[in-house]
Amino acid sequence: MKLSEGAEAIISLKNNLVIKERISKNYRLKVLDEKLRKLRTRKEAKILQKLNELNISSPKLITSCDKKMIIEMEYLEGKQLSLVIDENYSKQAGEIVGKMHENNIIHGDLTTANFVVKNDKVFIIDFGLSVISKRTEDKAVDLHLFERSLEAHHTNIKEECWDAFLESYQKHKESNAVIKQLEKVEHRGRNK
Ligand SMILES: Nc1ncnc2c1ncn2[C@@H]1O[C@H](COP(=O)(O)OP(=O)(O)OP(=O)(O)O)[C@@H](O)[C@H]1O
Ligand SMILES: [Mg+2]
After folding, report:
1. Which of 3, 28, 105, 174 sits CB 3.0–4.6 Å from 33 for a disulfide?
2. Is the domain of 124 the same as that of 147?
3. 65 lies in the same domain as 132
4. Which atom of ligand 1 is nearest to the CA of 129?
5. Residue 180, domain CATH
6. Ligand 1 within 6 A of CB of 94
């Protein structure tokens, strides 16, 4: 059963597992396209495995195959955070992102569509654009993306949710430097 078809991947449900398959993009050169899809599949599986090891709330990785460009993972039967967001869930999201950044894992596409809520518990998903980086700037850009996604899709509750997110994010190591850098990122955004 197909769950979702995005720009880069098809998500389907089979035997109660989620299969994420990277699909080909016609506008890319074939050789390049294959390389990129394999690379992203491998990277996504690696990051997911690392999150599992660190006990960061994410689906369990079952298997991955670079050649077939698929990842098999636990199915989190729930709703996208974007559909149910509130202060409590934002706080949980801040906790997750805080732990990721403490371990130098940058999400790369931090929006409210890339979290799933199952039984009141928040999980992070979609690591196709994730990278390992110690840079404060990269972490700040992650936060900026999340803030922007709150502004764009949850305008009326943005302030409470953002405050709740930061409250738990701030409890993590070196988070103050990231929040300081965020001001610079925001400033740049405004002057573009
Ligand atoms: N493990 C999972 N359990 C439940 N639902 C999931 C799971 N993985 C993905 N989904 C659902 O499928 C949607 C799309 O998945 P995902 O965000 O990983 O891919 P994508 O955004 O299409 O791909 P990408 O951004 O890597 O190109 C999610 O927003 C979520 O609703
Ligand atoms: Mg996604």
Report:
1. 28
2. yes
3. no
4. 26
5. 1.10.510.10
6. no
Domain that holds residue 44: 2-74
pLDDT digits (tens, 9 = 90+) for 135-167: 999 999 999 999 999 998 888 999 999 999 999
- Long-range pairs, 14-19, Cβ under 8 A, ≥24: 16/75, 17/62, 17/72, 17/73, 17/74, 17/75, 18/59, 18/72, 18/73, 18/74, 18/75, 18/76, 19/70, 19/71, 19/72
Token readout for 161 is: 């949710």
Question: Radius of gyration over alpha carbons of the chain, in Å?
Answer: 17
Block residue for tokens 């999150």: 51
Same domain, 40 and 121: no
- At 62, is the secondary structure helix, strand, or coil? strand
For the stretch 68-103, pLDDT in tens is: 899 999 999 999 999 999 999 999 999 999 999 999
20 pocket-lining for ligand 1 (C-beta < 6 Å): yes
Smallest CA-to-CA distance from 109 within 137, 56, 145, 80 is with 145
d(CA 88, CA 131): 27
What does the DSSP assignment read for 12-30?
EEETTEEEEEEPP-TTS-H
Same domain (yes/no): 25, 57: yes
CATH number at residue 30: 3.30.200.20
Residue 11 Cα to ligand 1 midpoint, Å, equals: 6
List the beta bridge partners of residue 71.
20, 64
